[in-house]
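Reopening this ticket.

The earlier resolution said the output was attached, but the attachment link was broken on my side. Pasting everything inline this time so it's all in one place.
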Amino acid sequence: MLHVRELGFEPVAGVRRDEDAARLEGMGLRTVRLDVTDEAQIAAARDALGDGPLAGLVNNAGIAVAAPLEFLPLDQLRRQLEVNLIGHVAVTQAFLPALRRAGGRIVNVSSIGGRVAGPLLSPYTASKFGLEGLSDSLRREVRRHGIDVVVIEPGGVRTPIWQKGNRLAGEMIADMPPEAERLYGRLIAAVREQSVKIERQTGLPPRAVAEVIGKALTSDRPRTRYLVGTDAKVRARLADVLPDRVMDRLIARVLGG
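Inline output:
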């Protein structure tokens, strides 16, 4: 948000918690309460912004649900899709009229996980693959209205999503039968190790993603997609040139399997 303000916009941040609102408002940013799974909050946020033209909408809400698909609680799959996909649709629907008045731009924050699927991440991957396809369809629907739709595909970023995801995964795994540990224990440990490494060492700073979002909002001729980070670019390239079975073996080798 700070970078977007530096570019000359007057950003409004959607937040779920009072402490986040207080922190951002202390930096001089305007906030609205916005849980993307709450239709009443979405409507209230739209009303709070009024009927004026809107230059851009950045859909960035996200959680990460990780578990073996065999033992995944279906309510967690539904929650993943509600936040990462359906919530984006709900917010976009609410603000499309204001975007149309400005010939504005929609920026959907996806992930390299929207191109390359990893083991244990089927809920997250499903949400991001869905967001990619949805963005393509929407871009083709609204182009005649002067609205563009851009997708951002970061690799690993140092954000709390990893810690929260690991905590949720731990809670789900604790409720799974012993067979889950026997069948998937090594893979679970390897994926957790990778996520901790991203959170603490290898992940990009959030500013790197913010700068690409800024480019997507301001470029005269934006790309339809922006990969962010070396890991994202390498994985995308490998997925483009390697057969699926070879990619399967490569991912297994990275994870020690």
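Reporter confirms the inline version is readable. The longest helix spans residues 74-102. The mean pLDDT is 93.
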